[in-house]
Amino acid sequence: FFNFALLVLLSNWNYHGEASKAIISQDSASRYLSIGISSIHRKNKYYLMKTIESIFSQSSPEELREIVLVVYLANNDSTLNKQTAKAIKDGFSSHIDEGKLLVICSSLSSYPSLRGLQRNFLDKDESVQHRSKQNVDYAFLVNFCASLSHYYLMLEDDVVCANGFFSIIQQFIHERMEPWTTVSFSTLGYIGKLYHNEDLPKLTRFLLLFYDTMPCDWLLELFHQSKAQKAIVTFRPSLFQHIGRISSFHNMENILKDPEFQEDTGDFGDFPAASCYTDIPVFDGYVPEDVCPPGKGFFWGRNITSGKSFTIVFETPIVLQKIQIYTGSAEYKRDILYSGYVELGKVKIKGNDGATCRIYRRAGNFRNGKFEVDNFDQIMEEQIHCLRIQVAVTQKEWLLIRKINIWVKKG
């Protein structure tokens, strides 16, 4: 039973992760990202296997070399834990053998008291006990992962991932210069929350100190505030979507979706160095730089009138191979570009409001808020300096540009 990395750690609250150091190979400790999932079995619907499959299938072989997934089986029934562990082994044996997947569990004997707890929010005793146990579940999981990697990502056991989520997270963290405690890659609860691994022992203590005080997502909010990060850093669009319909508590139906999730398929393109400019009035700080490749957020503008434009100026000239531009979002479906086109520019020049190009030629039109063209290099092999999104007809709706994917011809 222990041969496929089911690690049973009883009554071991070592805040420095000594247990994991003794069990996990040195190779795992050098990885970039550990992903933690705490899982409770649901009688009517169980999503864990689909979640694990999504993590592995939405990552390339190169990305998987930098990931270790840790699943904490938090069922009170040890027989059920063993059955679930066997199902994971049968479905993902190759990932287990390669050290990419670890399964751990514990015993309630290692938990603080879950009875007679204070009812701070007039909840029923069962509800208080459930959320308090959940806090301890996460504390155990977080503590175990403290020495496995450079960063830690918290997920639930009923989510699916966007394609290439690892590279997007890595790129975002690499480019962020301001200090941070928590970055959120989902707008929901405790899905997609990223931490520095050196903060995990502190987070473990924090969850245990207030385990019987409030729900986990409230504690996670207070944790980054306690470390002087006033507001959570949120990446958009969300990289993880909640798929569960049945809650782990009393198997109640709980339909909760992240409106910002975008499950774009395939590659996310190349990241040529570029600057972005627009004469469209910006709404609430959603500036052009947020969607400019590699696109760590989105642009949102208002007063979309004919002749307005959004321009990408490349640092060095490129030969295009493929372009994908998406407007609108799952939550703001009407904020698309209804009538517009894309132009390719040459001869870069400086202007009063940044840079642009002297000569443009039309490359194609937007359809249903999208612009997608493949095999650009077969149409024109000329180098370009600019790419411009042009508004053709005035619209009453605002414009949200959520994704600009660019592929560059190599060689």
Automatic annotation (TrEMBL):
Q: Give the keywords, sorted.
A: Glycosyltransferase, Signal, Transferase
Checking Pfam families in the record gives: MGAT4_cons, MGAT4A_C
Q: Which domain of life is it from?
A: Eukaryota
Glycosyltransferase is among the record's keywords: yes
> Which residues does the UniProt record annotate as the domain MGAT4 A/B/C C-terminal?
276-402
Q: Name one GO biological process term.
A: protein N-linked glycosylation
What pathway does the annotation place this protein in? Protein modification; protein glycosylation
Q: What InterPro entries would the database entry show?
A: Glyco_transf_54, MGAT4, MGAT4_A/B/C_C
Q: Which residues form a coiled coil?
A: none
**Residue ranges of domain MGAT4 conserved region in the record:** 23-261
The GO terms this record gives for MF are: acetylglucosaminyltransferase activity
Which residues does UniProt assign to the signal peptide? 1-19
The identity of this protein, by name, is Alpha-1,3-mannosyl-glycoprotein 4-beta-N-acetylglucosaminyltransferase C
Organism the protein comes from: Pelusios castaneus
